[in-house]
């Protein structure tokens, strides 16, 4: 049990720090500070408060960091907070009214699509990235949509693709009908939950139209191969493994596909998927101009993600001319989310469960859903059991679960049947958790790209309620990652080493260790 003095210190860590006086040492000591100005970064040790960002070109190690001593055991109970700098009004001011945007860009969408967009999805304005991407996709270019999490990338490609399919079907109305299981568009995802989510968005947009949406998930592929289902399909949403098998066996035909989307493209282009995905993509004529006559048409490629691996161009060169790829990116790409408060707490591993329970119970009392991330499935299992044993309704979701157990769990959390979602990084990619207000990193991620995606589960489009990310920092490796993140926050620069090709990173580290140990590495294995 902690002593009373330590309990008081821990409770102090979770208070709002808006009343701290401006007595901090600044990167520019001569700069005058307004009285009662809220720091950009608040720290337990007030000399590390930040009011004015350091020069953007400051090298790592050249400016003081609050976390510089966090590897020492005496640093426990220290904390640091990145305060939100964007308000609700700031976010709304960046949105553009749908009618104004469409008229100014000479774009005309189907009336039913627009009606469903406003009434069923409750969207009245487009985000900045949507206004940039929609015209590019609508004009049939190959497009890379690279933007921060939660800014509406799905709609940015979904709306113009559905419109093009409607126009194509109307133009070919008198022609022979397509064969069953021959889609016009394919949307590929790395995970089942994301595939279900995208399908739901598409189905809402397509209500009262003749567009047919089909979803294929991994885990029941053998059943579909033995007892296949045949139907009219316009848009096929599928996980990469299941789709590859069903196309190879001829159950689904790809000759009419004119739009291929890689959603969460960073994960799909990771070495874990790239060989299988690259082989699959080579069946499409991406090299042809998508707007040519009907007998010589090509396929449009769209990639969407919040982070991209460093080998993106190398991978894409195998299937398209990368010079034809139009990149649409946001100014906040690979930066810390400015509208979400982020807390970093230096605590011991043994005290994490008690701190977690304290935070979660406060959120449950306010009826605010929470997402808790762990680095391993075993830890995610522990968190789920621990919370349920302490009276908190928690549901567990990780990649080691059988599909029949895992399916529907995320939807149950979204529908409010559970207060907490305990998950691994399988729950960090693309999932639209608009109801959640708080993300807790029980384990701090060891890769910056994972941190970006985890933070992106809150503060999403349509959710303007203040949101918080709380990070438990308990090991030396975690401290090293946090120090790099803090440096980026103090300079306002890009987050470092945002390489989403995690498997490639791990392989390189293993090879480096092998070489350091004097173990001979085969030439074809060396990177």
UniProtKB/TrEMBL annotation:
Residues 339-506 form the Helicase C-terminal domain. The keyword Hydrolase applies. GO terms for molecular function: ATP binding; helicase activity; hydrolase activity; nucleic acid binding. The keyword Signal applies. Pfam families: DEAD, Helicase_C. SMART domains: DEXDc, HELICc. Keywords: ATP-binding, Helicase, Hydrolase, Nucleotide-binding, Signal. Residues 134-326 form the Helicase ATP-binding domain. Residues 1-24 form the signal peptide. This is Probable ATP-dependent RNA helicase DDX28. The gene is LOC105223587.
């Amino acid at each position: 049990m902690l002593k009373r003095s330590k309990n008081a210190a821990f409770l102090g860590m979770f208070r709002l720090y808006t009343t701290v006086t401006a007595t901090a040492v600044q990167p520019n000591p001569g700069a005058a500070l307004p009285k009662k100005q809220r720091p950009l970064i608040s720290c337990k040790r007030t000399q590390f408060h930040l009011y004015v960002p350091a020069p953007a070109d400051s090298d790592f190690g050249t400016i003081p960091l609050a976390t510089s001593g966090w590897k020492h055991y005496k640093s426990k109970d220290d904390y640091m907070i990145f305060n939100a700098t964007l308000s609700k009004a700031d976010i709304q001011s960046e949105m553009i009214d749908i009618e104004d945007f469409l008229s100014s860009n000479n774009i005309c969408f189907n009336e039913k699509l627009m009606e469903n967009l406003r009434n069923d999805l409750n969207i009245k304005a487009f985000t900045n990235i949507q206004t940039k991407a929609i015209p590019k996709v609508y004009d049939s270019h190959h497009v890379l949509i690279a933007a921060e999490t939660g800014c509406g990338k799905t709609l940015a490609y979904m709306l113009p693709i559905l419109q093009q399919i409607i126009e194509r079907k109307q133009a070919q109305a008198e022609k022979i009908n397509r064969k069953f299981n021959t889609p016009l568009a394919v949307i590929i995802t790395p995970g089942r939950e994301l595939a279900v989510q995208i399908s739901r968005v598409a189905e809402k947009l397509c209500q009262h139209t003749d567009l047919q949406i089909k979803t294929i998930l991994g885990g029941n592929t053998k059943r579909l191969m033995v007892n296949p289902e045949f139907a009219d399909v316009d848009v096929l949403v599928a996980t990469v493994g299941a789709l590859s098998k069903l196309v190879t066996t001829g159950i689904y035909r790809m000759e009419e596909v004119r739009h291929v989307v890689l959603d969460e493209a960073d994960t799909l282009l990771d070495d874990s998927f790239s060989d299988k995905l690259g082989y699959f993509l080579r069946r499409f004529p991406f090299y042809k101009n998508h707007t040519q006559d009907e007998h010589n048409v090509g396929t449009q490629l769209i990639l969407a993600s919040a982070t991209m691996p460093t080998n993106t161009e190398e991978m894409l060169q195998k299937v398209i001319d990368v010079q034809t790829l139009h990149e649409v990116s946001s100014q906040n790409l690979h930066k810390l989310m400015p509208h979400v408060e982020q807390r970093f707490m230096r605590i011991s591993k043994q005290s994490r469960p008690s701190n977690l329970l304290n935070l979660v119970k406060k959120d449950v009392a306010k009826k605010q859903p929470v997402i808790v991330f762990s680095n391993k499935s075993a830890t995610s299992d522990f968190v789920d059991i621990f919370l349920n044993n302490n009276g908190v309704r928690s549901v567990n979701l990780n990649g080691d679960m059988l599909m029949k157990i895992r399916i529907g769990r995320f939807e149950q959390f979204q529908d409010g049947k559970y207060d907490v979602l305990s998950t691994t990084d399988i729950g960090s990619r693309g999932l639209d958790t608009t109801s959640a207000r708080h993300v807790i990193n029980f384990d701090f991620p060891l890769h910056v790209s994972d941190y970006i995606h985890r933070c992106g589960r809150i503060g999403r489009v349509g959710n303007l309620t203040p949101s918080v990310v709380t990070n438990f920092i308990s090991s030396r490796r975690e401290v090293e990652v946090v120090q790099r993140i803090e440096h980026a926050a103090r300079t306002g620069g890009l987050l470092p080493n945002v390489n989403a090709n995690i498997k490639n990173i791990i392989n390189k580290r293993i090879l480096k260790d092998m070489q350091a140990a004097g173990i001979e590495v085969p030439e074809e294995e060396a990177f």
